[in-house]
Design goal:
single chain; about 60 residues; mainly alpha; 3 helices; 2 strands
């Protein structure tokens, strides 16, 4: 997926995706000057983040 596709998928602006990619906060690969986001990896990242949120809420953190 490219930046625009990921931004639409996550319902955020493209600048947010660029910032998170540069900081390593979202799984991404830079090919030349273009960021790419493997969908399966992105989906796993989302699921892991959601699970972490649930675990924190259940443990009272």
């Amino acid at each position: 997926m490219n930046v625009g596709e990921v931004a639409r998928y996550l319902r955020v602006v493209p600048d947010t995706i660029y910032r998170k990619a540069r900081r390593g906060e979202i799984p991404a690969v830079k090919v030349g000057k273009v960021w790419r986001f493997p969908k399966a990896t992105l989906d796993k990242w989302l699921n892991d983040a959601a699970l972490e949120t649930v675990v924190k809420k259940e443990s009272g953190l």
